[in-house]
Structure to design on (162 residues):
């Protein structure tokens, strides 16, 4: 199995926020996909079907109780739960983009944007907590010393003619 960031580093509210956005955003994306399917444009029809499929994938992963009558959903949800947060983030972001690219309507942008937001939240969870204030100050002081990161940003700027 893939290794995952330690769960104690992630705040509880961030986990529930990502799940809530995934579940609620998936339901909204599915409804907007149905509304978007009423169109004369074949590309927007394909985009709405893609958006509904992406919404079903996210809902079945984040809230398997919403799809309890589909046989494979429980195993799929447990498999997705065992994946690292960065993999979920990349997957959700990738499945949200094609519908927006195919049919950039407000309903598509909003519906798939919520799935995209869920991916962004999982990406933030993958990054983990930011360092303490003391760690940030120490890193900033170290980077401004000779030989540090900021030492050679403007080499020769004072010597070059204007």
């Amino acid at each position: 199995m893939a290794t995952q960031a330690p769960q104690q580093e992630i705040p509880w509210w961030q986990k529930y926020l990502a799940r809530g956005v995934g579940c609620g955003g998936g339901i909204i994306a599915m409804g907007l996909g149905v509304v978007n399917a009423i169109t004369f444009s074949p590309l927007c029809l394909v985009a709405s079907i893609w958006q509904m499929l992406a919404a079903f994938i996210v809902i079945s992963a984040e809230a398997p109780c919403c799809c309890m009558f589909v046989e494979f959903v429980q195993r799929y949800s447990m498999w997705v739960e065992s994946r690292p947060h960065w993999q979920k983030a990349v997957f959700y972001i990738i499945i949200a983009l094609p519908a927006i690219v195919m049919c950039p309507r407000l309903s598509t942008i909003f519906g798939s944007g919520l799935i995209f937001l869920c991916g962004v939240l999982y990406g933030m969870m993958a990054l983990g907590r930011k360092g303490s204030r003391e760690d940030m100050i120490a890193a900033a002081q170290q980077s401004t010393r000779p030989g540090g990161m900021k030492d050679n940003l403007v080499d020769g700027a004072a010597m070059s003619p204007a």
